[in-house]
Amino acid sequence: AVLPLVFGDVRVLAQGDFFERLAESLPIVDGGSLRLQLAAQSTQPWRTESGTDVSRSLSAALLTLESSGVLRLEERSDAPQRMLLGRGGRLLHRLSHIERLEDA
After folding, report:
1. Model-level pTM?
2. Whole-angstrom Cα distance, residue 76 to residue 90?
3. What is the pLDDT of residues 38-85, one digit of tens each?
4. d(CA 68, CA 27)
5. What is the mean pLDDT of the chain?
6. Residues 70 and 102: beta-carbon distance below 8 Å
7. Closest Cα to residue 3, out of 16, 20, 21, 29?
8. What pLDDT does residue 79 have?
9. Residue 14, C-beta contacts closer than 8 angstroms, at least 6 positions apart
10. Is 90 exceeded by the pLDDT of residue 34?
């Protein structure tokens, strides 16, 4: 439901812009204000993520949107990338750009 806000009038966003806009629209996701507040309150987080890791929950959501034909997750070799993580922190997919394929 927030994809129109995230993408605005563009179809493709670099991963940095995408995750920044997503965190503004959904403050509970990676980098969002609520997520950061919760992390700050925890003295022993179960897992710390680097700035290039995408949480397992958000990774699963993005991969679901891709398999549903809503988004395309692109890995362009000449651009900064983030890593979608799965069970046990296993690397599932690298991405540098996100393309919105349909109006959602």
Report:
1. 0.81
2. 20
3. 767 766 655 555 578 988 889 999 999 999 999 999 999 889 999 998
4. 24
5. 86
6. yes
7. 21
8. 92
9. 79, 80, 96, 97
10. no
CB 59 within 8 A of CB 41: no
Nearest-angstrom CA–CA distance, 78 and 86: 24
Our CA angle for 17, 83, 67, nearest 5°, is 85
Residues 14, 41: Cα–Cα separation, whole Å: 31
**What secondary structure does DSSP assign to 7-68, as a single string?**
HTT-SEEEHHHHHHHHHHH-TTSTT-HHHHHHHHH-SS-S----TTEE-HHHHHHHHHHHHT
Residues 6+ apart with CB under 8 A from 32: 22, 23, 24, 26
Q: What phi, psi does 8 have (nearest 5°)?
A: 60, -125
